[in-house]
Amino acid sequence: MVIxxxxxxxxxxxxxxxxxxxxxxxxxPLIGIIPGFVFLFLAYMSVILMIDxxxxxxxxxxxxxxxxxxxxxxxxxSFSGFIASLISIMxxxxxxxxxxxxxxxxxxxxxxxxxxxxxxxxxxxxxxxxDIFNLFxxxxxxxxxxxALTALYRGRDGAEAAFKFLLIGAFASSMILLAIILLYxxxxxxxxxxxxxxxxxxxxxxxVLIFILFFVGFGIEAEMFPLNGWVPDAYSQAPGPIxxxxxxxxxxxxxxxxxxxxxxxxxxxxxxxxxxIMGVITMIxxxxxxxxxxxxxxxxxxxxxxxxxxxxxxxxxxxEQGVFAAIFLMFNHxxxxxxxxxxxxxxxxxxxxxxxxxxxxxxxxxxxVSLLFGLGAFAIVGLPPFSGFWSKLYVLIAAANQHxxxxxxxxxxxxxxxxxxxxxxxxxxxxxxxxxxxxxQKPSLNSSIVMIVLGLIIISVGVYPxxxxxxIENATTSLLNKDLYIEKILPGLAEIIN
Amino acid sequence: MKKLLIFGLLIFxxxxxxxxxxxxxxxxxxxxxxxxxxxKSPEVLKVSNVVTAIVVNFRxxxxxxxxxxxxxxxxxxxxILYRRRSVHTExxxxxxxxxxxxxxxxxxxxxxxxxxxxxxxxxxxxxxxxGGGFQGGAIIATGFLLMLISYRKFFVKHSGVTWxxxxxxIVFVGLGLLGMVYGGTFLENFLPAGxxxxxxxxxxxxxxxIAVGFKVGAELTGVLDTLLNISQDEE
Lengths: 498, 235
Known about the structure:
The structure holds two protein chains of two kinds.
Chain A: H1 7-26, H2 30-52, E1 59-62, E2 73-76, H3 78-98, H4 106-128, H5 132-150, H6 156-187, H7 192-198, H8 204-221, H9 230-237, H10 240-265, H11 269-291, H12 296-316, H13 320-349, H14 362-365, H15 367-381, H16 387-401, H17 405-431, H18 445-463, H19 466-480, H20 482-489, H21 494-497
Antiparallel strand pairs in A: 1-2
Chain B: H1 2-21, H2 32-45, H3 50-58, H4 60-80, H5 102-124, H6 133-150, H7 158-182, H8 204-228
């Protein structure tokens, strides 16, 4: 038994989720404190594991003692490990932001912490697993905890948003399940590495159908147009920190699964074109709709969809630069969007209507929160010297090397749209007089610290991108080197096809 | 017009999918992984029900996930089906409008222990005969459903349900972790496998299935109770 093993990402939160009701009976405040220790340990373990991981030595964890393809396995590679670490560190920060969850009673906060643990487990499971059916199981865990979190406040709107989310999510699950069944009839295995090896045996027609089913299913989780009807409602109805969970974890796990399937399992040229087209449509429509939003959180939700579109575009280049830019974007989007949602949670809490027009003069009323919101807005738009600048620059460079001038023009014009709607909010915060004096709920100490930490990460990565680029380069190599992945999981099998 | 368009589109998609599906061969041998399971279950694990061996051991990690999904569904159903839950009063008039007849009540009393016994039998013998934790748990929940619809005053104790599902979950994960300590990997079968076809065999497989049975039974009972107690009127 070792101290740091990828299996703990799954097992510890699960165990804690089962234990938490019993801790609650013992001493009530424990339900808020215990998850923190779990998240802290996972974040610490991520750091330990990431130090040693290189593209050529992924950690393969067997389960129940059976070697793949007979048993399920977890793969902690440079790519999956990077995303898993990102999710676990974000999980810790979101716990620290919300551990004094006082707005609801004991039963509901117990539920909140159980669901928070499980949504993190599910997202990390999607990222780490090397087995396609296991991925489906974790997708279900993520999905169901996300639906329940959306409806946590038990309002009419929340229930409606959750129900919409549930219907779309159930549709996604059945698409993916159907795809897995079809795939199994063709290749007779569920191990992703072995599927990749045997994929060339599958008839093209069936392969395309399986791919489309997967694409639709994971597209829903990855907020792809036109499958993203759940996003604005879920983001605006869920408790504040949970919107950050959706942007930072659930959507990231969805796009990870999509990319894993396209890059590892399917050798279809058209897949990349499809991803590019869907990414462009998603980005343009979302950003244009965001411009017209009056509620702040809905605006951020549409902006989040737009960013996911940009990530899809970057992944669709299928070049080293494109993948590098995409992973950098995933990192930035997780950090910056979380900061925006966490600050917005306080801004919106102190308005009556949750509309942007209600935010006049908040720069004076809530200086820290407004400043951090402004920082996040500058960063997500892509202004230097913040981290968002670098990822957007790398996307443009990758597109330029592919000679995709139209894409460059589109990304730049969409950025202008982004600037317009973010600056609209900032100008209200700083350049308008406050209309009336209402008592302001000040952010608590722990949530201020979390928001400041996120802000500092954004600035330091912006000034010193080298802090993170080494890890992202390794992740890129690991994702693009399909043969290495297969070789490490199934030694000797990769040569059979080549 | 819009509906017609959607209908046409659905038919188009359906025809396309059917076209592809009709080409999928049926009954062809793709049993590479499965043959391994068929061979190893009786030999190594000493489990005569191969399905159980696959569910609890080869793919036990998936089962842990599925159990969690059920746990989540039981926890989340109350939130998603809005409409505030009624407080536990002595008599809940919303549940059934009239008391069930004497025949139903007496019959339920006789059947209830038998149903529980059947459920327990099925999950205890999960590694020997068809069925197992999920099936046995579902049978137990039907026993409680029978009591819930026959008696207006029959209530499920929520703290009891919570205790059972928590402890069963902890047993499952705990056995997995013990497998890590004694065997090296999570969920590894570290107990002696015993003799094929005897009740005490299969190492941790039987114990895990019993825990799953308790957990599924408790969770489904909790879900049924939640559904029955959602009041009909708006608040």
